[in-house]
Design a protein that fits this description.
By secondary structure, this protein is of the alpha/beta class. The mean pLDDT is 93. Helices cover 43% and strands 22% of the residues. The protein has a single domain (3-124), classed as Response regulator (Rossmann fold, 3-Layer(aba) Sandwich). The radius of gyration is 13 Å and the shape is globular. Strands 2-1-3-4-5 form a five-stranded parallel β-sheet.
Length: 125
């Protein structure tokens, strides 16, 4: 199934790898990228784009607005759509506290970078 995907990550290399893998497996109809949580919220609120993701890959360590603040704000701002969007934390952090914080936000998909073929199959197939 082709999905609308939002990559929220300040690392251009990670975004490039993620985008390539998603296209390789025909998982994405549209991919938008945001370098931080604040920019992601701007994209989601932009009426001109008329884009809303089916899946979001969110890094947790970013400048301006980190991934946890973004997810919390997204859940409050888009409360009615929150449970309809698959949120995947895609990070380099293996810190148990980060895993705990993700769980408290209701995020069940916590992946360690880079995204792999196995990750995509587990998420989308």
């Amino acid at each position: 199934m082709m999905r609308n995907i939002l990559l929220v990550d300040d690392d251009a290399v990670s975004n490039f790898i993620s985008e390539r893998m998603l296209h390789r497996f025909d998982a994405a109809a549209n991919i938008f990228k945001a370098e931080n949580g604040r920019r992601a919220l701007e994209i989601l609120n932009d009426p001109v784009l008329s884009f809303f993701p089916d899946t979001m890959f969110v890094d947790i360590n970013m400048p301006v607005m980190d991934g946890f603040d973004f997810i919390r704000t997204f859940s409050e701002t888009f409360e009615s759509q929150f449970n309809q969007v698959q949120i995947v934390i895609l990070t380099s952090s293996l810190d148990n506290y980060d895993l705990f914080r993700a769980d408290r936000l209701g995020i069940k998909n916590y992946l360690v970078k880079p995204i792999t073929e196995h990750h995509i199959q587990a998420l989308f197939l």
